[in-house]
Protein 1
Amino acid sequence: MKKIQMIKNQTLSLISTKKIIQMSNVSTSYDSKNFVLKGINLSIDRGTNYAIVGQSGSGKSTLLKLMNGMMISSNGTIKIDYVVPDMNDKKFKKMMHTIGYIPQSLGLIKNITVIENILIGALPRLSKTQSLFKRFPEHEIQEAKRILKLVALSGKENRKVYMLSGGEKRRVAIARALMQKPTILLADEIVSELDHVTAHEIMDLIADAQKRMNLTAIMVHHDMQLALEYANRVAVIKEGEKILEIGVEGEKIVDFQTGDMSAEEIMEMYNDDSKK
Amino acid sequence: MMTPKNNIVIGIIIALLVVASYNVDANPIEFIEGLPNLAIVVEEMLLVEPKYVPTAIWAMFETIQMAFIGTIIGFAIALPLSMLAARNLNSKYVYAPIRALLAAIRTFPSILWAILFVIMVGLGPFAGVLAIIMYTIGFVSKLQYEAIETIDSDPMDAVSSIGVSKWQLIRYVVIPESASHLLSQLLYMFDYNIRQTSILGLVGAGGIGFYIINYIKFFEYGKAAVFMLVVLITVLIIDWISVKIRDKYIIKSQHGMEVTTK
Ligand SMILES: Nc1ncnc2c1ncn2[C@@H]1O[C@H](COP(=O)(O)OP(=O)(O)O)[C@@H](O)[C@H]1O
Ligand SMILES: [Mg+2]
């Protein structure tokens, strides 16, 4: 007998303090003609490991850029910790350091060292003179070294980033985000290009950091299998619409839109979609 | 390809060339008739007067110092202006007026700046240094802001999303990402400014050109030759040194950047 847990997300109160990210009826476009996201509703609890899965071009990266305020939605409302994300807004700008964002390209600075890249995560905590003269306080340097160890890069702190392997670069990007002391981590397909073993190493690392720091992680994946393996919740995006959202409890998968489904059935459904 | 359209374009260019040559009195026959004069100059130049070598070297040293000060100060003033002129860092209301100002500065060749400063501060190397500073600001700022605009937008976006200030973004992303270009521009500018400073003496703004123009005025080609030879050798040496520096530091870091994009 499968233990079934119904998730009544539509009826959950929007004022619950558990909610860290709320999107209601969000649509957006790059050219004010073709909507790349259409009527997205999302509600993410604090501490969740949330996955967004979909084919390329379905709008996953756009969704993350809306969450970190790099883009502003055309319609609907978005709240991150009850603040509307907009990087030109003073109130949101003050809380941007609590959102760690790792783009698909990682966004590292290639010709400086690993430790210098990681310390960039501490910049919002520095005074003007400290940042002008690159005077990072001792406790920040210690923190960077601690995180360096956490991501298993000890001993490589003085390597230039362009000399690192793909897996190592991802560790640096994660470390920079963790250096921000974030409450939310947004990661865009950061394991898609890695081999199976390395991808799992990176995902384990994030799962570990997430537990330690009580992070809410929102990760975009191409691979449904990987999403089901690590996430508590998986949203499937297709052509800008959320077609499915599933809760994952260990091996058991609970769907609140279409009724109970097994992992195999979900995989089948997703594979059918990605073939089209 | 010789399409009819290309033929018309080539025809127009040739026509313009003929008209322009007529207007400026460019006459190949005069050029050929003038060649014997060149032979006389060369012959007299061969009577190099070695006892002027120390003076020439000293004058060249002064020239290099002028170029050095002018390049460094001009470059340092240009850098913040370039940050304001870069389209990827500022709104239109900031970059447009700064670009207009820089374009205006750029319209003056260094020799005109030199004349202006000789009138302002009098004859001598100081006027030359000021001229080099102004010329460097106009010229190098364009190279700088173009380099800044070609920076990869991914690290800029990623670091902006941390919530850093604009100055932190410049200090920690823009400068490191464009450092190899900036260093290469600095070397190029110094190299170029040594050549320019060598002729500023023509209008009395100091440097080795002052000696050259005076000896030529009095037909003392042998003495002028010493000074010109020193300029030639110096320029070759500086060229060689900057190629070495470029190979050692700049090519290496750019190569590193290419490796990561694969
Ligand atoms: N900067 C942009 N300008 C215009 N269209 C864009 C831009 N970025 C993405 N798009 C379009 O938006 C759609 C969704 O893109 P994206 O969010 O990157 O999808 P995904 O991350 O799922 O691959 C695609 O059709 C893409 O072509
Ligand atoms: Mg994407």
Protein 2
Amino acid sequence: MFSIIRDLFKYNREFAVGAVLLGLIVFFSILSFFSPVDPTMLYIEVPDRPPSGEYWFGTNSRGQDMFWQLTFAFRNTLSFGLMVAALSRVISIVVGLLSGYIGGVVDRILMFFNDIFVSLPIFPILVLFYFVLRSDLTTFNLALLMACLGWPFDARLIRSIALGLRHREFTRHAVFSGMSPAKIMFEEHLPYVMPIVFSTAIANMIWAIGLEVTLAVLGFTNINIPTVGTTLYWAINHSAMVVGVWWWIVIPVIIIVMMFIGLFLLTVSLNEYIDPRSRLRRMGG
Amino acid sequence: MSAILEVTNVSKRFAMGGILSRNYVNAVVDAGFTIEEDQPEVLTIVGESGSGKTTLARMILGLESISEGDIKVAGRSVSGRVNRAQRLSFMRHVQPVFQNPFEAFNPLKEVDRYLQASARVLLGATSRAQVEAAMDDALQKVGLSLAEVKGRFAHELSGGQLQRVAIARALIPNPAILVADEPVSMVDASLRMTIVNLLRDLRDQLGVTVIYITHDLATAYYISDRIIIMQEGYAVEMGPARVVLDAPEHPYAKLLKDSVLPVENAGKSRVQPADRKTAQAAAKLSGTGELVLRDDGRSVRLPRDGDGSVAV
Amino acid sequence: MAFSEETVREQRDVLTLNGLKAYYQTNYFGVEREVRAVDDVSLSVREDEVYGIAGESSSGKTTLIKTFAAAIRPPLRLIDGTVEYKFGDRVVNPYDMDEDELNDLRWKHVSYIMQGSMSVLNPVRRIKKSFRDFAFEHMDRSRAEFWNAVEDHLKLLYLSPDVLEAYPHQLSGGMRQRVTIALATVCHPEFIIADEPTTALDVVVQKDVLAMLDDIRKKLRSSVVFVTHDMSVHANMADRVGIMYAGRIVEEGPTSELFTSPKHPYTAHLVSSLPQIGDTTRKPALEGRPPNLAEPPRGCRFHPRCPLAIEKCTTDVPPLESVGANHRSACWRSADVRPLTPAVKPKTGESA
Ligand SMILES: Nc1ncnc2c1ncn2[C@@H]1O[C@H](COP(=O)(O)OP(=O)(O)OP(=O)(O)O)[C@@H](O)[C@H]1O
Ligand SMILES: Nc1ncnc2c1ncn2[C@@H]1O[C@H](COP(=O)(O)OP(=O)(O)OP(=O)(O)O)[C@@H](O)[C@H]1O
Ligand SMILES: [Mg+2]
Ligand SMILES: [Mg+2]
């Protein structure tokens, strides 16, 4: 594992840049564990201070130190995005592989649900859940909810690969070796869909985080949890741009753009590494 | 004496074409033969391309549903297999050998995975030592050893080695029947002989029956005991391989034999299209008549009226 | 006909390869590999000639063909050597051409039937669509004329026009193979390259397909280069045969000479391992493993498996030298090579 990362660092510039960018942001979010302040406390600093040696990222109109505030925001947003991506990957892998490999009735039923989920209007549903759950809509619950809505397109992609694999001779060979369908799907076929899983994971994270920001800005999430979205919500609520507290908005936006670029580069390079064809060539096939 | 494989009046129909013009392809019509348990043999199926050889093999392996008739393996109908236990018990009797040795293994996984799975699931070996013994045993039968194969990836082995590993894998559950659909058509001449010789040894030394599908009449003559010649889904001539191939009787069988390219006059003559007169006679008879048993043990498909008087 | 020695000499060279080297070069995260799949191949193919290439699996036959069909893409790279076609008075080098000229060359002059024709056809398009996509614009004909020509051409290959409506998976292996051959030859090219064109065909259809290729060759005086494992096809199709082993041509000569008096031990083995109808004696198989092209054996690449190997073979590479009219062999002991079994085979019943 370590040698893989070392090799990637050495031979793949995208990986190096992406890893550095993301590393910085992860480090930044980890700082939240050492924060001297509680992110939910208000008016503990002088409000509306521009970035300076004392307040690196300035303070906002609610009297919070933006540096520490943003460490919490990014920790929550990052883990939220990861949670959604991971959970929805699990669903789409299971559905895609089952549907592609087993086929027949199973395929038709799963794809029926798949199509229903594709056509669901996601935004109104999320808003509805907000009104029903209110303060029970924790970060985890929201992630679960969005994972349940964010899998269908990728499941279809995975299914199409699995369909092709089903007709390969080695699959039939595996069947006649007595391997169980689960073993065939998760040991023989999974490596072939991993590149898709990785490349859709980033898209999924961007989607999830983007939607979270949208919901938060409109006030449809638990606005007391610091995230990038709620940070912007409060900034808009206090007309930050109008009153000239630009750092309240500009700094989080810059960091989130950095985060997306880092994630993107990482996926691109990991994809190349994990792709069966390039893997084969490396092994000498 | 009991039959290990009974194929009775088996037919297969495929629907083809769009919604508006639906027509049917009779891939296999009324095929029938029996393989006895204590009489191992190489049964070769040759014939036109598109004559249903692969379809027949896939039906025997249970990969294709049967439109009409029945296939029984060890007394149990192939199409009746529903649960996993039944499927596994079927796989202990019948195993396939694939056409392309380079495609038969997952390129991202070690080749011994397949052997291991077979030993565990099909043979029921539980301890590590048992599994390895079973693997080594099977590999020895094909002239390899576990040490040569363990932990290797498909690209680290030659085509001949891969095909032998595949055959060794198929031998682990001690099957009575191997179904080999064109096992040598993708490999070069010298490799071809390695594998054909191996199939021959399996029959002679291990008593495995091999259903060998091929286009190569020369290797068919070389190893088979019985032969079935197929044309457009019908078996047109079947019987002892040497008898049939030395002097084929059905026009299509004759055509097939005459079309084998000779090597005696290498470089001295050019290919001519297959003999049109025989071909037409063969085409005219296609799908007509019934199988008639001859004294020398072969059956020939002859027109219903005046048997034996086929004008060629 | 192209059999007598004189006519062979009069024919112009259409394709000339000079010191061709094509390697698969990969560099993945520090693991560098170089597979020398074509290593120093020189040969020429004449007008109106059928040149057969035989050899072991993965000896680089497909790679060689791809290289001179200018159908290479990374990681395969042309390392050295030249490829030259002569059509009429035009001399062209496909590696000096731009994309448009190359496309023109591919459809008007050179046609390439790829190996594994089953996988070439797009599985989700009807055969008809493939014909329309690939051949229509190159034929300069009206729609009706085009479809007539296609149907006539399919008939030559004993395919019914119904296959146009089918999807590839609905056809048997042999039918798919014929469809791709039809696709590649419907424009009647001058130079036909075929990689294992008949492996999935029954002998009757194989004969017809080969006769059709030969017919096109005769009508247009085009040249045919084809690869196959089936030595009996070479025996009946080729004017000359080149035998490849581990990325090199080890022997090349007129077909009849190769079959009767091979001058390389590998060729001798190839032609003697053929079984015949009427013959059930046990045939030998070549021992040993095929060489690894990433680290080929030093000296003659065949020496680890060669019954005639001497000390010199392990160190020095034998050059491809003339051992007779039109006959070249790369073996230090070519004079000592004997056919392994008598060339005349036992009688085979009544057929010829
Ligand atoms: N899935 C399918 N759908 C429709 N038709 C099919 C299907 N599979 C096979 N066929 C048809 O069934 C017939 C027999 O095909 P099959 O593959 O069994 O031939 P084959 O004897 O194995 O030929 P070959 O020697 O070329 O491999 C062909 O006409 C083919 O078009
Ligand atoms: N894309 C690739 N990358 C790396 N190596 C390759 C690639 N394609 C082929 N090779 C290697 O190049 C060598 C020659 O392959 P090639 O396909 O030319 O063989 P061939 O003679 O046509 O074999 P066959 O008779 O099996 O078709 C083989 O060792 C093969 O493993
Ligand atoms: Mg077939
Ligand atoms: Mg090839």
Protein 3
Amino acid sequence: MYQYDNFDKQAVRERAADFRDQVERRIAGKLSEDEFKPLRLQNGLYLQLHAYMLRVAIPYGLLSAKQMRKLAHIARTYDKDYGHFTTRQNIQYNWIKLVDAPDILDELASVEMHAIQTSGNCIRNISSAQFAGVAADEVEDPRPWCELIRQWSTFHPEFAFLPRKFKIAVNASPADRVGVKLHDIGITITRNAAGERRFEVYAGGGQGRTPMIGKLMRDDIEAHHLLSYLEAILRVYNRYGRRDNKYKARIKILVHETGEDKFREEVDAEWRKIEGGPVDADIAEFGRIADYFTAPAYDTEAQVDAHKARAAMDPAFAAWVRHNTLAHKVPGYKAVTISLKPHDGIAGDATSDQMDAVADLSENFGFGEIRVTHAQNLVLPDVRDADLPALYDALFAQGLGTANQGLLTDMIVCPGLDYCALANARSIPVSQKIAKRFDDMDRLQDIGEVKLKISGCINACGHHHAGHIGILGVDRKGTENYQILLGGSAEEDTSLAKILGRGFDEDGTVDAIETIIDVYKAQRQDGENFLATYRRIGAEPFKEAVYGG
Amino acid sequence: MVANAHQIDFRDVEPAEWTHCETATQAAQTAFPVLPADELSSYFELNDVNSVALGVRLSPDTEVEALADRLDQIALIEVDFPAYTDGRGYSQARVLREHMGFQGELRAVGDVLIDQLRFMKRCGFDVAVLADHVDPDDAEAALKRYGVWYQPAADDRPPAHRLRRFVQNWEI
Ligand code: SF4
């Protein structure tokens, strides 16, 4: 993985020192809370319902064992012994004291980490596929490109005060594992007919209160023009994005109001002025970065299917292998998803001890590398088949052995009213009730793949628009109420979920989800998953069953 | 000019006694007027102009490209930041410098706080006029704190990856 050189180290140290100064100026009363707010936000510090929350960047979801141990240490020392992994592949600490924040940034800087641009109206952490570098279907490893974009966007002098936050995701396989069309900018690395590298750049996608699917801007961007093209989009957005209404300030509204074609022309006009200029001149840097992402020393003798004997006699282990492991590009290896969705827990939460355990396991069964997924799980990318039984046992002992990756209880859940000041309803209790209702592995496996996503308000941090089943918390005359949506997808067949009908209270929601699943089971054909059945039969049968004829 | 306003100079500039004017006619009789951008065309239609040098004040929604024809007659451009959260002025500055080749003085005014200065410097501003309550010593200290940049911009600072090629064993 990428290693900081002295320039990078200096950059995060300067930033930590700067933030210490800002906190001191705030405490001395030289900065008003209004003035301090965007500064703390650009360092990932939010004021939540009960305390400050610190969001730490995990660039494209990639962590070393050493960094994971530092995250555990921070949770133990400065928070309540746990952290929360987010849908943007970051980690959040929910109970931070303002006076501790500068020390935490120093701790992070010591392991090449930071909280830069994890919030505020700037270019946020770049996200990417959790199986980058190991997935068999990838055209190349997207991470060096993510790192190049990370460096370009870090402290970008022109784009620190955009109309609104700006999220970029990079994918490099036909299977979309990042939600390319649901980002402000989504990038797919492809090969053209001649086998040459090209970048497809989408703009104007997003969720939130006005969900929109991103529009293809160009599919022919070459490597040495990538940064100038991104800069052109950002410049047009910075100049013309709406600033009169925070809810209309995302680039998706600008693209929509300008019109896709006209927007593309405006970007092209800007791009022609800068393509091949200074921002593109440093593409040589890419080679230096890419050298950090060469494949580790895989065991060329790794025995394929060495876990099969255990699987044959242990159905629980077999189920875990089936759901939580993915074929690796190297024979005899698997990429393992560690579920952070135990049925009695909180989606995405991990205790300090669990983080330490995962760090150890990443070294014992891999090359000391860990990934954070946008579905709020962790991944050990390089596990030999032969090591799967021992890994499973160790994870199980830590409460990390739930075999539900991709199944109904592998929910994406936003923090909701338990933490978030913007929430209309709690997300966590309803997710826990659903997990309890479906707490039967045989039943879950029979139901198969379902993406259930829960947001506590219209801001959609829980991606409810992109769920096969989405749940949206609303405030109905002062009580928490939940609307159900069906038919969303954040993958290559991106679609936005549609509201089924009137909402329910917490228990009514759980009942309705069960009814919806029953309709699917009665109607499914030939191995269809939930989404395929929904797309074939439409919303009506579900409506009838949930609301009565 | 506002009396006593502290200004941070990123580069040496010719000092001049600039005066803000609301109308073109007023500006024409002022030695160093600073005129709102939308008064500019009236100013250039006047016959009786006694100004020594001309300054223009932009608002965030001024299309800087509209100044192209007159750019060589403009000595000073003030870019207004009505709220520091409004980042349009950074793009205006870069477009003026990098696309339009503006060589005159570029000045950031308005809600200019400490933590914007380093960005202003990189986007091609010569001078930033601090908001009234900002302590200039704090501003200078904060400005000195940053040495590493990752991207080329309108100043001549080389980004980190260009330096990397020359400095192999660089220690801090
Ligand atoms: S969706 Fe709403 S409630 Fe949930 S985290 Fe986002 S803002 Fe908060």
Protein 4
Amino acid sequence: MAVPPEAAGQAAESHESVAPKPHLKRDQVVIRFAGDSGDGMQLTGMQFTSESALAGNDIATLPDYPAEIRAPQGTLAGVSGFQLNFSSNEVFTPGDEPNVLVAMNPAALRTNLEDLQPNAVIIVDCEAFNESNIKRAGYTSNPLTDHSLDKFQVIEVDVTKLTSLAVHGLGLNNRAAFRCRNMFVLGMLSWLFQRPIDATIISLKNRFKKVPELLEANIRVLTAGYNYGETTEMFASSYEVPAAHIAPGLYRNITGNSATALGFVAAAVKAGRPLFLGSYPITPASDILHDLAGYKNFPVYTFQAEDEIAGVCSAIGAAFGGAIAITTTSGPGMNLKGEAIGLAMKVELPIVITDVQRAGPSTGMPTKPEQADLMQAMYGRHGESPVPIIAASTPADCFDCAFEAVRIAVKYMTPVILLTDGQLANGAEPWLLPDPDKLAPIKVEFATNPEGFLPYARDPETLSRPWAVPGTKGLEHRIGGLSGENLTGNVSHSPANNELMVRTRARKVEGIKREIPPIEVFGDASGGDLVVLGWGSTFGPIREAVKRVRAKGKKVSHVHLRYLNPMPGDLSETLKRFKQVMVAEMNMGQLLKLVRAEYLIDAFGFNKIQGRPFKVSEIENRINRVLEG
Amino acid sequence: MATVLNRKDFVSNQEVRWCPGCGDYAILAAVQKTMPEFGVAPENTVFISGIGCSSRFPYYMNTYGFHTIHGRAPAIATGLKISRPDLDVWVVTGDGDGLSIGGNHLIHVLRRNVDIKILLFNNRIYGLTKGQYSPTSEVGKITKSTPAGSIDFPFNPITVALGTHGTFVARSIDIEQKHLGEMLKRAHEHRGTSFIEILQNCSIFNEGAFNDVTDKALKADHQLVLEHGKPLIFGKNRDKGIRMNGMRPEAVQLSATVTEKDLVVHDETNLSLAFMLGHFEPPLPTPVGVFYAVSRPTYDGAVNQQLVDAKAKQGAGDLRALLGKGDTWTVN
Ligand SMILES: Cc1ncc(C[n+]2csc(CCOP(=O)(O)OP(=O)(O)O)c2C)c(N)n1
Ligand code: SF4
Ligand SMILES: [Mg+2]
């Protein structure tokens, strides 16, 4: 019966016969919850994630929102999904192909079917498979009866009816009762995977504090779902995914956007300066603005500007005044910010620009991830305009990268671009809470001494200029975008001086190399047949794929880049130890071009531009083909 | 402030490089002369500009200064003022900088009422780029880019500012040093966005654009100096005034039958009146002075108040507590 197929191959190791039903152990399960946007699938997914985290699994999640806010009910466009990968091993991605799909209606089934593993378990609310829903999903016949699902294990549960039975007598109207269906599913799955529902009940109590009848309804439905799993014949057994071996400590589940916001707050606290965010809403970056708007007491200023240009410009103004200043956006907004980033680069003021990359070009697929803004970050400004770039690899890594971006910006008096993407932004994973006392120091020293003060004098090591903020007596000075004289910054059109300044700023950025830690090769540092090079969110699928092929004895390694400008000083020599270099990216080969141009390495690309992350299997297959020659 | 400031404290060591006869010199002189009266030390004063001849202004002020990019000065000033409400922040912009490329930022800073002072130098031309028509150029203007005459209908800076419910809207003239000084003072006293349109002569590309209000022989008959609470009187002999004819204003000759009592009395707090005056065009006289001045909470003040309130309610930010917020679990 309901055997998650990935585990099915491994045969059931342990039958515990204490319970009335057998209890099977599995290493890893990938579940996708899918339903209409109003069906509460995100909430169900997140709650099941919490239960799994509490059970000690390593996890990674990814929501899949419809592009339209409220697409018509029952349509393909209105399907909202949430995928969870939970395992007793280390997890790197939200999982390739789900082995369990919960489909609340025919549209949810249809949009997700092609992603499933063969033999996957599909749990459907059979009452939702009525004629009109089936038609609205574009089916010509009922998939539950036309044998099109024969290669899957379909479990039909009358979720709608069972839910309304559970709330009977509470006086809920039909609509309110219908909206509790997700709790039935959650209860059922909690039983199926032997997750205690206590934590969910506590969270429901918080959620419905003010509406006791809804609280009662949700708890009843949740419990009914759990009991249904245990007592009915639907499920022959339940499953256990034992706890993973993860580093001890205090954890919380975190999305990339939340981690980014926290990284910036932490950096500002460490710097002892207020945080200022100037931003204009854009998917998938807006949540950083939303989060930071709630942290005013730190203090955090959030300014929702009239456009992206004003967003970055207000940050530049705040940086001029001595704040830790940032702006957040996604691709289209990044285009608009270009000129102002060039200004910050030229006047040498510290700001961090976060680009939560989404699938372009133009408006593209706003809710989907891509990595095609790397060249823009590198070269998307007029003139010689070098800007340090760092990229986050996982949702939790966004915290470290945001923090690091601020540290570099302040230390080198430069704008820094932080690249994340829609996958990281909304995806979540457990995060080992950092100890604030152990975070790197961020030293802010404003210039105060008028004696010999020169706004463009430089620190001999970092080539950084002084940060002289208004309000400081005796340091009054003027900065601007016009070419400026060495040391004084006064307007100068001297040809030689211009070249000196262009080269000096380039050397300053290049000098950050000194601080970049040596590359950690996953695999064989000494070299081998193939190294897969990646950056950003492709970290997860590449790492997992390389792990899998290495387990089969292949001489394949993984190098991941956090620092994209400048790149690590040992990158060239590291890559040259391998017979072949493959750069896997969600673009047409942007890092590939940089690496080839910079190091004359004959690397080749593996590219995907579908607004979807690589599947582990895709990279694994590609590696195998490359090795076969 | 103990030390008395004087003009020199505001003069930088940079050579001023506008064309001979440019109205910008006069504006610079008026600003440098008036600033000491505010009692704000140069180090607490910041001039932020965009791009244009006018936007070179900050280089010549011995304060903090930032010559930024075309049109964006209001946005940069907003970020600075929000995070540093202690500073006196001025924006210098042009008719192209402020109303064309930067029109969006200008209307939003006015609408928000950020406590900054905006000086828009209106020469009705693009000076720096050598003489193309601007959003304030009159229809039919012959320039390099409009050899057959421009066909754009122009913006009126005053009514644009009033349209955003800007809280302080005034007009002055580059060479009217006394009047300009008074307007600067009023602007500085005002809490909120102060907007002054300064009619400025571009001696190279638009010489004499404001002749009717600057020429000694003509100006008295063409300037209408607005004074709060006073009737709208103008003319060399102060013998003309503005009267309402139904819903329409008209210029009238004062006489035995038409007296001051028949004239409109200026009220700076009346937005409808301000709009009406803002729309004055020849043959009606050109109003100068404060069209509109009202008090409304400032954006930067409100933002900072929210921070104070948040701190009072939640206590000072505690990073450890913030990181560990929400559902956590311990792995042993
Ligand atoms: C992004 C950008 N576009 C165009 C320009 C060229 N430009 C510089 S100043 C200017 C017009 C300035 O006119 P105005 O604001 O009226 O200033 P004025 O020179 O008349 O004082 C233009 C078009 C520029 N510097 N930057
Ligand atoms: S071009 Fe016109 S506005 Fe510019 S400096 Fe010369 S006179 Fe002044
Ligand atoms: Mg102009």
